[in-house]
Amino acid sequence: MTGRKKPGAELVLLPMGGMGEIGMNAYAYGLGTTARRKWILVDCGVKFGDERDPGIDVILPDVSYLEAEAKNLLGIFLTHGHEDHIGGIAWLWPLLRCPVYCTPFAAELVKRKLAEAGLLGEVPLRVVPLGGTVEAGGFSVEYVSVTHSIPEPAALAIRTSAGTIVHSGDWKLDPTPTIAPLMDIDRLMEIGNEGVDVLVCDSTNVLREGHSPSETEISDNLANIIGEAKGRVAITTFASHVGRITSIAQAARANGREVVVAGRAMHNIIAAAREVGLLKEANSFRDQTEYGYLPRDKVVLLCTGSQGEPRAAMARIAADNHPDITLDKDDLVIFSSKTIPGNEKSVGELLNKLAEQQVEVITSDDALVHTSGHPRQDELRQFYSWVRPKLLVPMHGEARHLMKQTEFAAECGIPETASAMAGEVLRLAPGEAKIVDDVPGGRLHVDGRIIVPSIEGPARKRRKLAHVGVIAVSLVIDGNGRMVDDPQAVLDGMPEETVAGYEFFELVLDIVEEVFESIPRKRRQIDEVVEEKLRQSIRRRIETEWGKRPIVHVLIHRV
What we know:
Layout: E1 10-17, E2 19-20, E3 26-32, E4 37-42, E5 47-48, E6 58-61, H1 64-68, E7 73-77, H2 83-86, H3 89-96, E8 100-102, H4 104-116, E9 125-127, E10 133-136, E11 139-145, E12 154-160, E13 163-167, H5 185-194, E14 198-202, H6 215-228, E15 233-236, H7 242-254, E16 258-262, H8 264-275, E17 286-287, E18 299-303, H9 313-318, E19 332-335, H10 344-356, E20 360-362, H11 377-387, E21 391-395, E22 397-398, H12 399-411, E23 416-417, E24 424-429, E25 434-438, E26 443-447, E27 450-453, H13 458-468, E28 470-477, E29 488-492, H14 504-518, H15 527-546, E30 551-558
Parallel strand pairs: 2-22, 4-7, 7-8, 8-9, 13-14, 14-21, 15-18, 15-19, 16-17, 16-18, 19-20, 21-23, 28-30
Antiparallel strand pairs: 1-3, 1-24, 3-4, 5-6, 6-26, 10-11, 11-12, 12-13, 24-25, 26-27, 28-29
């Protein structure tokens, strides 16, 4: 039930991540007046850093607005267990401190994260079965089964006094998944018949026509490829893809091979799946320590590292420094995955290392060994026809994906479309959808164990360091404004010599002595004057000789 309409009550969407990007999904829905709103947060995910953010492994949505509204935050509702939907919970829950709702498999994954963070007994984690409904203030949230590339994904039917939203989560139409249940099409059609005001929908694959292949097709193809292999077969895929792990296990068994598992993330996912009654074939999986004792034609290695992650099992195998696993000429590696945008360079390096070992490689460009967990155009068209929303809001995609889905939805007859980016408050109902406000938003970086700002944080300075190097100068000055000893300098990330062959180290010391002597004795008593004069002079002179301006630090000691 949508409930009785309340005068003045607005239903709004505040994306905090996931709009205009792939990953870091976090969508806040608000109900009430501008002055008094209650909120729920759907998903709390992360992105992973790349070379643009040196030293940053994890990127979080900035939830400072919800932190200020924490007393009005009724709960966090997780659609499924992928990192880009649950990875921020352990980092951000201490700022939000509200109940967390999710299906059993996602709960197992969240528990492991909370245990690592020392929060397991503190976070109120509420397990909701597929088909279950949660009443939270003015929100009624129903978990509807869909199919995706992880167990127990759900779309959320969110009913309020101002209207009903279907938040699709991540999904695809797969009539023959390797792990039940099927998508609950009947329930989606019933919800559509009740009346859906807004569909907030996955946009990841909207640029592709047709229909995604089923997971069963992947299983059959893997079985055929493994059956033709003469030596070892190693398969790397997303650790969270329990359906794919099942496909690999079935393909291995069909060809009389044992499955060996390598990689911490893979072991964790398998353990979580077994905990909720999935992946029963995992009982006979072998550990990596048994790999060397199995005949080459009797093993399938299942390992992490499909995205070229440097610490994952496949990267260590390709570099020939894994403690238990090696590959030989004519062994086969299958990348049963798609390269995530931004990972192309690291995956390419991995493929080249395997080629240097004369290992055969098959990727999704060579054969049907991977299928996406997101809908193509024919699947979107079917979903629209079941739900029949008045308004379509695209999510989970870069700007081009969002723009394409608004165009595609209009072509399919959806009356209204609208979109928003992180920090923009989009009014969904009543009336025409439009941006009505904006709030502080953006990204946070996890730097080691510390959450820091993304714009003014350490990554910005590291980017500059990576391009121009650093010079640190130290000098001791007495009460009369004289240097007590020779200045000291440290240069990092710079060439050794100028074009003329003079050492940059000696040049810096020359500059320090020359500039210091040019400063009037009285002004030498002011640290800021000496520091700025030396810093600017060193930068200008080095730029003349090198063509780049390094970062310069001047340390003054008084005696």
